[in-house]
Amino acid sequence: MINFKKLFYFLIGSVYIPEELLNTREKILLHISDTPANFFSVLNFLISKLQPDYIIHSGDLVDNIKLEIYPYRLDEYKKKVPQLIKILENSSAKKIYLALGNHDDEEVVNNITNRSKIIEKSDIINLEDLEIKITHFPDEIKKSSSQYNLFGHDLTINSKIEDDKIYLNGILAINVILLESKRIFTLPYPYGTDDSRLGKFKIGF
User: Fold this and answer.
1) 3-state SS, one letter per residue, for 7-47
2) Is the dihedral of CA 39, 40, 41, 42 positive or negative?
3) Is residue 12 part of a domain?
4) SS3 of 54, please?
5) Is residue 203 part of a domain?
6) Backbone torsions φ then ψ of 118, nearest 5 degrees
7) Tell me: the pLDDT tens digits for 22-70?
8) Which pLDDT belongs to residue 192?
9) Which residues of the chain are modeled with pLDDT < 70?
């Protein structure tokens, strides 16, 4: 029944949130990555339901705009990225971390953020006794890893547990960590998210 609900929500462009997540009293960490603009409204819904205590975005904030390849789309990026920042910073999250991706513009993001911590390449933080490495790039994880490793960019490292370390790729799923029990939930991105990431709706990639 749960699998059917997941599929139904996926196909209608939404995210199924398990009841135990909705009813938890534990603190919540929400991890997302490589988010195209058509995911923003779903993200707003997700945050309103989960009320995460911490949010980590591991880069490419408007992933349907490939700035590194198409720098002439900067004006479009400037219009879209504030929509995401508003959703994140209007949330009740205590702390918000943004790891800049290869398709992000550091100056633009710095100018529009008020309470988010911006991570240029990688950083290790401590949240509720968890040591977490945050980066956009899997290569940074390959250089050195931490207890928890949150990243995006591509699929050169999948989500896995290896040598008692946890690796969560934010492209593969929306990751939710309950910070007391350390339980991890992976929620599928809505239908069409990957197509938007690849620019199939507008431009070839």
Assistant:
1) HHHHHCCCCCCCHHHHCCCCCEEEEECCCCHHHHHHHHHHH
2) positive
3) yes
4) strand
5) no
6) -95, 130
7) 999 999 999 999 999 999 999 999 999 999 999 999 999 999 999 999 9
8) 86
9) 1-2, 4, 7-13, 199-205
Q: Hey, is 124 helix, strand or coil? A: strand
- DSSP assignment of 128-179: TTEEEEEES-HHHHHH---SEEEE-SSSSS-SEEETTEEEEETTT-EEEEET
- The encoded tokens of residue 170 equal 């934010």
3-class DSSP assignment, residue 93:
coil
- CB neighbour class for 52 (10 Å; exposed up to 12, middle 13-18, buried from 19): buried
15 falls within a domain: yes
Number of domains comprising the chain: 1
The Cα 160–Cα 204 span in angstroms is 31
**3-class SS at 116?**
strand
CA angle (16, 177, 192) in 5-degree steps: 35
Nearest residue to 19 (alpha-carbon basis) of 6, 29, 31: 6
For residue 156, give both structure tokens. 């050169």
CATH number at residue 163: 3.60.21.10
**126 has which bridge partners?**
131
Specify whether the CB–CB gap between 61 and 109 falls below 8 A. Answer: yes
Does residue 73 sit within a domain?
Answer: yes
Which residue has tokens 């239908």?
191
Range of the domain at 57: 2-197
